[in-house]
Design goal:
Helix content is 42%, strand content 23%. It has 375 residues and is α/β, with parallel strands linked by helices. Helix 7 packs antiparallel against helix 12.
Length: 375
């Protein structure tokens, strides 16, 4: 740490907590490691101001978190081009981490801002939002990510989501990088993240991820991934692991998940015998409104008795519209295709049932029963 005298009329804030620095002399922290600067002239952009309280925290905690998250990214097959302290293209800003993430067959650039603290005060929220706004203006085609080793409340999460910032709190990091965390030693953050596994059940963590996923088409891939994880956790055992984004021979019909149904008894065997459900076809729709009839027609086109069978599930946030309900009834009455809607609240009920060592298929049984009795 060094001392730096600011101009009298300049208002400084701590880059960690966002608190105003009222004295003219403030501690500073090297934004770029001092040993990398050599004998070159040190620019003001090489430093960040820091308050006395944050200056007294264990030295290098945030840098350690950046390094550890970078190591997790490098071990994960979905991420590539990992760069620590990388320059954001076309700007003078440096991000804690730059990366590319594989989404289907495309690569999405990520700008990852890391915080070493575990609590977001209002001051910290404002300071971080201001920082991310500058990054957003400098790189419009990249996805902004905020990563930190705490658990974010819903009100704070909403503020970041409104700015299209993807938040990776400790629960998200653990769920996305569990395998990498277990195999990557760290003197502090590995243990902190592993403790989450001991304090919360997997079902609770999945519920939190489901609730924290932003709604809308911009986040369809995130929602699809979470839905796939939830359904695999709930039902794979009786069902085989799903095929993801499988197309039929014409390539015109593609569904999010196809779960092979080889169950020898119980609920899934009944579905196979009664509804020709040799495969369970699932579409995940992250719509901010109720599902329209077009989504029903899409999944219905994929259902064929000689193919995957005649049962489909639409997983969505808010259930079907009136038009979608009418279309579902028509598909059943005219074509014998059973299409049911599973809302987020149904997924939560199933996860809670599994957490209590109950039977989550009873929720599906109830959904099918209500539909059949409505005919």
């Amino acid at each position: 740490m060094d001392d730096w005298t600011s101009p009298p009329d300049e208002q400084l804030t701590c880059y960690i907590c966002g608190e105003s620095l009222t004295t003219s002399r403030s501690s500073i922290d090297h934004f770029r490691p001092a040993h990398t600067l050599g004998s070159a002239r040190r620019e003001r952009s090489d430093f960040r101001t820091i308050c006395a309280a944050c200056n007294s925290t264990p030295n290098g905690a945030e840098q350690q978190f950046v390094a550890y998250l970078g190591a997790l990214l490098k071990k994960h097959s979905d991420y590539s081009e990992i760069a620590l302290d990388g320059v954001i293209t076309g700007s003078r800003y440096r991000a804690d981490l730059l990366a590319s993430r594989k989404v289907k067959r495309r690569q999405k650039k990520l700008i990852i801002e890391c915080k070493g603290f575990s609590e977001f005060t209002p001051q910290r929220v404002r300071a971080t939002l201001d920082q991310l706004r500058r990054y957003a203006a400098a790189s419009e085609d990249a996805q902004l990510v905020l990563a930190y080793p705490g658990v974010m409340d819903e009100a704070t999460l909403k503020q970041f989501n409104e700015m299209q910032v993807e938040v990776w709190d400790a629960l998200d990091i653990f769920e996305s990088f569990e395998e990498q965390i277990v195999s990557t030693p760290d003197t502090f953050f590995q243990q902190r993240l592993l403790e989450i596994r001991d304090r919360t059940s997997r079902e609770q963590r999945l519920i939190i991820r489901l609730r924290n996923c932003p709604e809308g088409l911009d986040h369809w891939a995130d929602y699809q991934k979470i839905v796939g994880t939830v359904l695999t956790h709930l039902f794979c055992g009786p069902l085989a692991d799903p095929q993801v984004e499988h197309s039929d021979a014409t390539k015109t019909n593609r569904r999010d998940f196809i779960f092979p149904n080889y169950a020898e008894g119980g609920f899934w065997r009944y579905l196979r015998d009664r509804y020709a459900a040799d495969y369970i076809v699932v579409d995940a729709k992250n719509h901010a409104t109720q599902i329209k009839k077009e989504s029903v027609n899409q999944i219905a086109n994929y259902l064929k008795e000689a193919g995957v069978g005649k049962l489909g599930i639409v997983v969505c946030r808010y259930g079907p519209s009136k038009g979608a309900n009418v279309t579902v009834r028509e598909k059943w009455l005219l074509d014998g295709k059973l299409i049911i809607f599973v809302a987020n609240e149904d997924l939560e009920r199933m996860l809670l049932a599994k957490a209590a060592q109950g039977d989550p298929t009873r929720i599906l049984t109830d959904i099918i029963q209500r539909f059949r009795l409505s005919i």
